[in-house]
Predict the 3D structure of the following.
Amino acid sequence: MPLSLTGVTTMFEGSFQLNSISGSKSQALNTIFASTLSCLYLAIQVLPQYSTASTLPLSELKEPQHDISSPNLNAAFAELKVILGASNISTVQAELDHRSNSSWSSHQEKLHEKPHMIVFPSSTKDVAAIMQICHRRRIPVTAYSGGTSVEGQYTPTRGGICIDFARMDKIVTLHEKDLDVVVQPAVGWEFLNEELAKSNLFFPPDPGPGAQIGGMVGTGCSGTNAYRYGTMREWVLSLTIVLADGTVIKTRQRPRKSSAGYDLTKLFIGSEGTLGLVTEAVLKVIPLPQTTSVAVASFPSIRDAADCVSEIVGKGVPVAAIEILDDVQMHCINKSGMTDRMWPEAPTLFFKFAGTSIQVLEQIDIVKKSASNARNKSFEFAKSQQEQDDLWSARKAALWSVMALRKDESDHVWTGDVAVPISRLPDIMEETKQDLSKSGLLATIVGHVGDGNFHAVILYNDGQRELANGIVHRMVKRAIEMEGTVTGEHGVGLVKRDYLPYELGEATVDAMRQLKHALDPLCLLNCDKVVRMSNPKAGEVKAW
Amino acid sequence: MPLSLTGVTTMFEGSFQLNSISGSKSQALNTIFASTLSCLYLAIQVLPQYSTASTLPLSELKEPQHDISSPNLNAAFAELKVILGASNISTVQAELDHRSNSSWSSHQEKLHEKPHMIVFPSSTKDVAAIMQICHRRRIPVTAYSGGTSVEGQYTPTRGGICIDFARMDKIVTLHEKDLDVVVQPAVGWEFLNEELAKSNLFFPPDPGPGAQIGGMVGTGCSGTNAYRYGTMREWVLSLTIVLADGTVIKTRQRPRKSSAGYDLTKLFIGSEGTLGLVTEAVLKVIPLPQTTSVAVASFPSIRDAADCVSEIVGKGVPVAAIEILDDVQMHCINKSGMTDRMWPEAPTLFFKFAGTSIQVLEQIDIVKKSASNARNKSFEFAKSQQEQDDLWSARKAALWSVMALRKDESDHVWTGDVAVPISRLPDIMEETKQDLSKSGLLATIVGHVGDGNFHAVILYNDGQRELANGIVHRMVKRAIEMEGTVTGEHGVGLVKRDYLPYELGEATVDAMRQLKHALDPLCLLNCDKVVRMSNPKAGEVKAW
């Protein structure tokens, strides 16, 4: 229970019934009292409510007070110019728009949700200086790197400053013998892997094309390789972080493992830029597998495909990836003409294999048998790199093949993901497919099926937004009811935020808010994301 | 910069120079003023210093105020009796002693470092009720499960209540198809694996014998399997936690992966009972490997052995474990007679293999070649389960063989661990070995060499404590200078706490303190562990 300071003030006011004093002296005195009390009251208002509680419910949080007035922003601009140079600050409208939202985001951006300016730091020191200014001036800040997130993660709900990390795009040091690499936040995972390949090394997390390390840390991303290699959480050794007040911390040096103190590295992974800004990361890498291959198998039904996966997972076969695309998705790929061949329009599993050639052949053999046990209709595996690329091309084209079917600007694609315990995956995919069919919208299912994680990819136009929203809403509800999560890899942003209490319970979300408030008491960093920092407006939260 | 409220008081005092009023009225008035001010001053003292900073330096923290007075503890006892029954509370001296420290701990326990009572809850609800009482009464709390930690983790520096989880030792539910298991905190990892084996399943983390899930979460433990399978961090899906004020949170449901909100699960892993109490855990499990084997190879020098490891790690061969024992350790094993055979007294690598029989044979072949490239003196691999057990028996006996050489109660064993980037492991092991030789103490090196993590196992008597302490101190310093960590798997407890700022920087430790203070403002949970909550006494911290 917070100590109510307002109560203290009231008590004092009660004590000052100085009726026995009269005349000018007592008046002067009363004036002093009054001014003292108002001083005190002011001081108390500035103070947060003190609590000995472990969590911070929304009801006990004061509305964040930012200052985005023109004079304050202008003064900040002048200060930032000294640090960064005028050419590294932008207020060009098109650039501001670009850092507000994207056409593939499921968040519906509001008109005011734009940064007032964009700054381009080149070092940790720059970022620390920027945050010192923003902290002193109470200007909210949003971080931006690849811009590929889909749940409104970088939409600046309260305006302020966008920190675009574009200039911090260097691979700093590769430690080949230690199997780690030091990188800046705007290094893309594809570029990183091209560079690593020159040293026969590999960094497994493979989220959407264009994603960069800063955002990948923020989202706690994964991708097709997560089944075998784990998510971003398993591949970051250390982070350099600028905190909300400009303090710079490094979460670790470079040991492969450590039990030294709280795992700050992992606290920042998945925190979506709300707890601190990543300015450098040490990533684990591994030797490139000697051999890889790909296989594709189609099945009469989603459930047959799921049976196949269940058998493979249950045997602990270390395949590098197991992906599912449903019949509608395969139809879209054919229709879009994005691959060089036509595919059976049936639920299809895509497998990647990695290891020595003996291991790969053995795995293909096991997978082939499991597919046959699950009544597969077709099975192909690649005998050359070209065949690997051809077979995997359909998986790669999945999202874009749906995007390609958009007719005009009013058409959008909503890519929502959830994850459930593996055994419940067939249930949720089937129920969601029925829901999709009923909706009349073109919608596909694409899943990282080895992790119990899948995406619904929904094509909708402006008039159908509520229809799409309803599908995702019911899918999320189903996932929670099946002991799953509202997002397996896309993160919370603004879109999944109000579902968190249903998944985790209010107290858990209140614990998250307590941590946010501890590290960022002024709520400067990506305020409103992940956990609510203000009460919702009427009608803002969909009924459960 | 914190708002200095003391300053506000002083200002008020300045305003009240009411010299123009005289007589009894002014006296009465002054009395009212004085009492008002003292009221205000009191209120201000109760308040913490308010800060908009992201970190909490020790200099800004108020000394934790606990109440371990007899009346308060007696009143707590009466309340706890109602909840738990008298038979589940103990104040028997021998039991209190047993929960204070152990003979294998490197912490030198002080006389007052004992719990005042031990409570044995049977459910999350019990633990929440205990914490509500302790929170209200400001009684410090220490959690206890297997008692195998070595750095003073469960030594109650401020007395209070020990929560022994012994009664919460159930495997709650095994979800075979989802590959997860729900357990209570006092389930031992060995027992768990016996039970899982009945379903052909396996839980990889393998810390010291006797360790239990609660403590394994607390320490963020690992063991010999970490090279292949990762540490405790990679094997916990979700935790049920009782926070310092008795709030119960669950960090996740049971999806295999999630990006939904801050990764609280991983924040609690490695927090050594300072942030919350684990009352239930959902653990990942995997199918037992079809085939396993063991190989043992000895080398002319530590550096040759390290070269062998480097080649294997660099090739990404997924061996299940790579362990090193130095010549002195092999000598101790021979001398103790703890295995059925004699061993070459040379630096020796122990390998575990797991997978299909084809994979295992292939791995043995690669390892054999790497050992030969590194000038090995011997190479043996197991052709039967019996041979596996025989070969692995030496690795298993390592610590105990040194313990067996203790002559009397005044002899102790100090097992200190550090971890460094893999390429630096030969350097630090060699330098530490030289240091050990010079000391004249019997001391061995045992390492999880695939992770860059090793232990010095030092036999010393009461009079040699400072000698042993010095060895560990220099080893830690070396690890930090090589970009490593002060502990790879044993945790911080009390012994490594003052090294943390050297490894991570003061600001990082201050960020950890901020998190501790946010979740446990009264510092009730295992206060003084991991991060300092009080200034050190003179001479308490060893010079760097």
